[in-house]
Amino acid sequence: MGKRATLVVDIQNEYFPGGKLPLLGIEAAAANAARVIEAARDRGERLIHIHHEMPDPDAPIFTPGTAGVEIHESVRPNDGEPVILKNHPNAFLSTDLKERLDQEAIAEVVVVGAMSHMCVEATTRAASDLGYRGTVIHDACATMDLTFNGETAPASHVHATAMAALAFAYASIQSVEEFLA
């Protein structure tokens, strides 16, 4: 088994109550992500924190320089842990994430974060496409209700659909308890 890194994707203030895009179950997901982060620290594995900002300083969400783009205190990086700024759902696109992983001979990525159907899914698919083995900790991820063509899908269905799609061909999907066991 090769080296493993945990990718903490976009657990930012914007997604918590008071933010512009509060997610269903974000507090529980962040608490589970914190457990995964602590386990990675205890094992001496690489942690990479990723946060999203829109490139437009007047963007309505993830606006640069606002409290919303800050990583939530429950999963704040320790000194020396890398933080990657991204402007796209896929954390590999236009960042140095792949180079960082390859420099350390990382073969497997563990993904936690937000949103399940967007940045978690895009990053996990890209990781697989680039040859990394992936594990997504499903209860350390959160999302929101989505509406399309006049029909609303509850967040629980959006999350389940994202996890099912990833499990089909892109990653192992585990609970925090399964992962930590």
TrEMBL record:
GO terms for molecular function: hydrolase activity. Residues 5-170 form the Isochorismatase-like domain. It is an enzyme of class 3 (hydrolase). Keywords: Hydrolase. It holds the Pfam family Isochorismatase. Its EC number is 3.-.-.-. The keyword Hydrolase applies. It comes from the Bacteria. PANTHER family: ISOCHORISMATASE HYDROLASE (PTHR43540:SF1), PEROXYUREIDOACRYLATE/UREIDOACRYLATE AMIDOHYDROLASE-RELATED (PTHR43540). This is Cysteine hydrolase family protein.
